[in-house]
Write a structure and sequence with these properties.
7 helices, 303 residues, Jelly Rolls, single chain, 14 strands, flat
Length: 303
């Protein structure tokens, strides 16, 4: 296996925004800063990476250029994992599958929170001309304008269809936990703690708040083949909505953490697809976030 341990000095660039990545990294010692627009007047520090964290994996999972620059903070040691050795890396230590999934899931949660904050701010700006000049909102407005200015060339919609096509091509090896649901049956219930993620192989699933109450609201709908409920395998948080079969013969595969190693041994392509799905979800949230920052910028600049 071609893993490489590397050492970086303070201020040294580990990966560079815009490069076509052929490997990803795990931080062994030290910490690192993540920047958008590094070295430019409008650079923005996005995050701080600590020991044990992965970075650079999205360029591998979806073949996109690097979306940020990572810079060493002090002396840093990291393992570089070439794309061609990802499965060998997992085979040597299958617990790394769940580690990488958790890393991506945490980033999804953080980006979802950023998007929610941006949408709330955008709503306030749309509703009131006076909101543009409120001191309490200025720092939030500036943060989102800076984020847009540093990332405005990266507002691209990720390609979901390529993931759906690849998911269709994965053979059924007969080892999955499958269940077929009739129309209206609940797959998981709002408020429950359900430590699984799901693959929808056929049929349709609706996500509802307040299902079977007078206040029932359909939030979204999934059509096969796709993943859903993936945060259940990553966190112990209660479900925020109920998943409901929308037609008879809806066939669903459930996956828990303990299933990840056996699935990898029998069908590594399925693990690859789960990771690609999480990466897609993160890119989609980032795209929505930047579009919201763009609207905030346009409204504020037109005051």
């Amino acid at each position: 296996m071609g893993l490489i341990e590397r050492t970086y000095k303070n201020g040294e660039i580990i990966i560079k925004e815009g490069d076509n990545g052929t490997s990803f990294f795990r931080l062994l010692e030290g910490s690192a800063f993540v920047y958008a627009g590094f070295g430019k007047n409008d650079q923005v520090k996005l995050a701080v990476l600590e020991e044990g964290e992965f970075f650079g994996e999205m360029a591998i999972l979806e073949a996109y250029p690097r979306s940020a620059t990572v810079v060493a903070k002090g002396t840093v040691r990291a393992i570089e994992i070439p794309e061609s050795d990802m499965n060998a890396f997992f085979a040597e230590d299958p617990s790394m599958i769940a580690e990488l999934m958790t890393h991506l899931g945490n980033r999804v949660c953080a980006m979802a929170a950023d998007l929610s904050e941006a949408e709330t701010l955008l709503g306030e700006l749309r509703e009131s001309e006076a909101a543009k000049n409120k001191k309490s909102l200025f720092s939030k407005i500036k943060k989102h304008i800076d984020m847009y200015q540093s990332n405005k060339n990266k507002i691209t919609e990720p390609d979901k269809e390529s993931i759906r096509d690849a998911l269709k091509a994965i053979p059924d090896d007969g080892t999955g936990n499958f269940k077929t649901y009739g129309k209206g049956l609940i797959i998981f219930k709002e408020g429950s703690v359900d430590n699984n993620m799901y693959i929808l192989h056929s049929g349709t699933v609706g996500m509802y708040s307040g299902y079977r109450t007078k206040e029932a609201l359909k939030l979204t709908e999934f059509t096969a083949p796709t993943f859903f409920g993936e945060m259940g395998i990553i966190s112990d948080e209660p479900r925020s909505a109920s998943a409901v079969a929308e037609e008879s013969g809806t066939r669903v595969e459930s996956i828990c953490r303990d299933d990840l190693e056996p699935i990898f041994r029998s069908c590594p392509a399925k693990i690859d697809m789960i990771l690609r799905h999480l990466s897609y979800k993160l890119r989609k949230l980032n795209s929505d976030f930047l579009n919201t920052c763009k609207e905030i910028t346009e409204i504020y600049n037109n005051k």
